[in-house]
Design brief:
90 residues, mainly alpha, elongated, Spore_III_D
Length: 90
């Protein structure tokens, strides 16, 4: 494996652990795709640093289990904003 890919995988895992970040947030931060983040953490990092991969996996699993809640909150916020905009308009 190329050195920069290994280094990126380690940096990604550290970022996820430090900021409790989602795959989407991490991908945006590093300017890469969500699938690359996922592959770096679940496949590449396991070979490089299994302990770090395990720690990152805990955060990713937690985020995955909570995503339906965040999605519902985002939808609720969207419609509250829409409702407030309509009330101000009329």
């Amino acid at each position: 494996m190329k050195g920069y890919i290994e280094e990126r995988a380690v940096d990604i895992a550290k970022y996820i652990i430090e900021y409790n970040a989602t795959v989407r947030q991490t991908a945006k931060q590093f300017g890469i795709s969500k699938s690359t983040v996922h592959k770096d953490v679940t496949e590449r990092l396991v070979q490089i640093n299994p302990s770090l991969a395990s720690q990152a996996r805990v955060v990713l699993d937690l985020n995955k289990s909570e995503r339906h809640i965040r999605g519902g909150l985002a939808t609720k916020e969207k419609y509250l904003q829409k409702q407030q905009h309509c009330q101000v308009k009329y």
